[in-house]
């Protein structure tokens, strides 16, 4: 090593030793990191770990003039930071002499006389206990090799054991092994010289570590297996195809062994049938209000940037300009009242196109009013959010897993401001704190939840029963994520069925499901056969054929008349859509109580239905005109581009442009649709003497050039927006 002069290759003690042939340098990572006269002035991939080669050579020359106070050799690049202390030493010599090196902040080093020590209580200081990690005896003395947990009274560690654990767990999983405290524990261990690398845990990075979880269960568990080739034989699209239990997935059967038809796509094992049958939803008092959940938390450690890792500041605030009135494309047509046909004509006449259009217009107007109401409610809930930040490190290749890890970390609190860091390109972390990045994260997260095993259905979703997800409390986490997303500026959902939404706000005992709520093809086919039986004999025959299914659902009843089919269908729908998922539903409801979202949903069901059960409103030129406020540095009448902006929006809406209205909104704010809570700050348009448009996502500001002709304005808009979004997508 050019700094310490040793050939030792011990990553646990001195950091990784790397040789760079092109620079003719060999260096220990810790020697480079702790040297007193060098800083990371380069980018992450520049030089060696961000240290420029010229700076390293200067540091080697500086250290060559200093003698180590321990080994008496030249090249001592590390100095004690205590005032008036002149001691210098090599990193390995400092470790040998029990110096303390703090891998945080200014990367300080303390010699053996000035190093920080832990304060132990005098009582019982001579007792012995076990190291929590290696379980060997350890003396409770203030020694360099012994560390005490700051959060647990009787938790002791060997320094070496703790350092190995920190290198393996990384900053996201390193915590007290007794009480699971993270913040206080990490802070103390960093003070006492434990290096905690900012990386994922080693067990998370191991390739194919959880490969066995991807193996499908392929075994027939029926008491009597009819297959001559054995219980493990599986032939798809035949009677010997093995179907797994739709609830637990850990039991299977051949189609022939359970007398199933080939079109039956689902099956429940005996254990899950009993569980589903015995599941009773607790009787609840009918009410419209629910108490909200108050949670608290602390922020992450290692948030502040180090002088060895300089950060670029976020730009100064733009000065406010004279605000002009909003430009709106509103028509002067007033809504017409509903037309009524005579009673005799209502059954024979279809709606005229005029009435259909008016009905659609009224429905859209009502949805817009409801969304404005939701926006005001969510803004009221957002008052709970504090300026204290919680950072979520999100891997774009596995949104759900990294989001779940972030939401479950000890420092996470729904009332903290959320900061997103996306992992890209060889696990580099790119800090992105704008509302656009949060919107993108929440949009990807909601898409993952929509397509997860927690829900079933094509476009309109209901909850389904996933026993593993229930065991891991994922329904609660999904509900909590949706609540946090809405309050923190996430997108509309739009995929909840009306039945699921009513179960959440009114209670499942007050909801009547329909056949459209049944996503399972086999179950839907069985219910249809019962519902459309046209004679008593055919009904009884169908009931006989479905005996096991009806018994498992607890819906067996004597069939004496054809009218009994209605009660039977109703029982089956209630069982399959509601009773079967009572436990997931209750867990999901508890998650939605976060930040008081469920309480507001119960108070304003119609308003919240507009964002839970309906797709977001399609953008129009009128919507964007109403959304963006025009700011200008001079009189509004002198701004030549205002008319160009209006005309361009109309061209985009009519399809006479290569970009879309969604692209314009994305370019300006980072959001492809208007979030239910709205924008903060409000989107603005500024006309400036600049060459090309600029989208300032941090302030939701669209800066547009002032041009002499509309053609130049349009060309510059399309060129900039198209290429900017192309680069961002890549």
From TrEMBL:
Q: Name one Pfam family in it.
A: PHD_G2E3
Keyword Metal-binding in the entry? The reply is yes
What coarse category fits the chief subcellular location reported for this protein?
A: nucleus
UniProt entry tagged with the keyword tRNA processing: no
Coiled-coil positions are none
Which residues belong to any copy of the PHD-type domain? Answer: 1-115
As for subcellular location, the record says: Nucleus
Q: Which GO terms describe its molecular function?
A: ligase activity; ubiquitin-protein transferase activity; zinc ion binding
Q: Show the SUPFAM superfamilies listed in the entry.
A: FYVE/PHD zinc finger (SSF57903), Hect, E3 ligase catalytic domain (SSF56204)
The record's GO CC annotations read: nucleus
Name of protein: G2E3 ligase
Q: Which organism is it from?
A: Crypturellus soui
Upper classification of the source organism reads: Eukaryota, Metazoa, Chordata, Craniata, Vertebrata
Q: What gene is this protein translated from?
A: G2e3
